[in-house]
Design brief:
The protein is of the alpha/beta class. Helices cover about 25% and strands about 25% of the residues. It has a single domain, classed as Carbon-nitrogen hydrolase (Nitrilase/N-carbamoyl-D-aminoacid amidohydrolase), CATH 3.60.110.10. The strands form 3 sheets. Strands 1, 2, 3, 4, 5, 8 and 15 form a 7-stranded mixed sheet that branches. The protein has a 6-stranded mixed sheet with strand order 9-10-11-12-13-14, covered by helices on one side. A two-stranded antiparallel ribbon has the order 6-7. Keywords: Hydrolase.
Length: about 280
């Protein structure tokens, strides 16, 4: 399976960002990829009010993503914002395949909200609750967003639901050690779930977006990781399309060799923030 990571630099104009989705999706398809993963907040970067740009998953922006997927003949996963009904938005991934098959069309609402490093995502974003797995050319692909990557139980749950590849769409906050954490977490989640991890982040904007809001606007470093934690392909800090070939048969081989999913045992826990499955 050939996959692509579209490490773009989103701005504040959803229409302009949709044009980036079109450009990078066509480039990925021309390179032979069947799946292209875009970052969190592809629709509109953080650091500006999100309510005015939020649209439902059957709205014009998501429909535009579906048209891109159909025209380019590729499955597209991209970050957007949808209304939550309580005055906040949801941090949503839209997945759109090249055909009308329901298996490749879905959306996922970010479960774990980024209330960390001085940023309070839950003030403006409502959480999701349901893990989501789609199918791309017969391969099961789990969907996660940014801060989700710090919660291993979500990744093992997606693996139990059949995911062989887990996409992480992020707009990773900058700061000392943050890029190292991103890389380490992607490799650790691949090992936890014995899955490929396809981690697409926003490119590093430098000083272009400023830092007064403390909003996470990207550090680059997108990467593909094997089920054994090996980095298969990676990006630098600037906008880039990363294309990688993955051998999905290695997932079953890894899970047989290191059977952490089947060897898992329930145990007493002080709290139940992470389900024991």
């Amino acid at each position: 399976m050939r996959i692509a990571l579209a490490q773009i630099l989103s701005g504040t104009d959803p229409a302009a960002n949709l044009r980036l989705v079109d450009e990078y999706s066509r480039r990925a398809a021309d390179a032979g990829a069947t799946l292209v993963v875009f970052p969190e907040a592809t629709m509109c970067r953080f650091g500006v009010p999100l309510g005015p740009v939020a649209e439902p998953v059957d709205g014009p922006w998501a429909d535009g993503v579906r048209r891109v997927a159909a025209d380019a003949n590729i499955t597209v996963v991209a970050g957007m914002f949808t209304p939550s009904g309580d005055g906040r938005v949801k941090n949503t991934l839209i997945a759109a395949g090249p055909t009308d098959s329901a298996e490749s069309h879905a959306h996922y609402d970010k479960i774990h909200l980024y209330d960390a490093f001085g940023f309070t995502e839950s003030r403006t974003v409502a959480p999701g609750h349901d893990p989501v797995v789609i199918t791309v050319d017969g391969v099961r692909v789990g969907l996660t967003v940014c801060y989700d990557i710090r919660f291993p139980a979500l990744y093992t749950e997606l693996a139990r639901r059949g995911a062989e590849v887990i996409a992480v769409c992020a707009s990773w906050g900058s700061g000392p050690g943050k890029l190292d954490q991103w890389t380490l977490l992607a490799r650790a989640r691949a090992l936890d779930s014995m899955s490929y991890v396809a981690a697409a982040g926003q490119a590093d904007p430098g000083d272009a977006h400023g830092s007064a809001s403390g909003a996470p606007t990207g550090v680059g470093g997108s990467l593909v990781v094997s089920p054994l934690g090996e980095v298969v392909a990676s990006a630098g800090s600037q906008p880039q399309l990363v294309v990688a070939d993955i051998d999905v048969d290695r997932v079953a081989q890894a899970r047989k060799s290191i059977a952490v999913l089947s060897n898992h045992s329930n145990f007493a826990q002080v709290d139940r923030a992470e389900s024991v499955g």
